[in-house]
Design brief:
The structure is a single chain. By secondary structure, the protein is mainly alpha-helical. The chain folds into 2 domains: 1-73 and 127-143, Winged helix-like DNA-binding domain superfamily/Winged helix DNA-binding domain (Arc Repressor Mutant, subunit A, Orthogonal Bundle); 75-125, no CATH class. Helix content is 56%, strand content 4%. It has 8 helices and 2 strands. The chain has helices spanning 4-19, 28-35, 39-51, 69-72, 76-84, 87-90, 108-124, 127-135, and strands at residues 56-58, 64-66. The chain has a two-stranded antiparallel ribbon. The two termini are 21 Å apart. InterPro entries: Tscrpt_reg_Rrf2 (IPR000944), WH-like_DNA-bd_sf (IPR036388), WH_DNA-bd_sf (IPR036390).
Length: 143
Amino acid sequence: MFSKTCEYAIRALIFIAQKSKDGSRVGIKDISSGIDSPEYFIAKILQDLSRKGFVQSAKGPNGGFFMEGKDLEQSVADIVKEIDGNKLFSGCGLGLKECSENHPCPIHNDFKHIRQQIKDMLENSKIEMFVKNLDLRLTFLKQ
């Protein structure tokens, strides 16, 4: 459903939020290990997300990535839109370019309801919620 870049971005932001809630900062090696991603790939993703304000970063010996209050209020939908664009929320279920209400593909009418449910779920899924569920051991990021 998501690109690999988007999957890593979501997992990394949740991991950083959980590990930095006490004010600490998390390094690339820890993030990579914690979410089971290639180090160079996650570094590139986080550099981009930092520039766009999804995560904070600090350089130096005590540097690393961290998230603050406003960062925790971001939804998964915000991340998906930034990384993968709006296709998940508006694209054709069969990948057709011309699919619309006036010119529907064979699954258009059923898929638009599913697409809306996915959008609603991701908009209501905030980073802070995932951190709480991880702390309660209701969910996990890596086996």
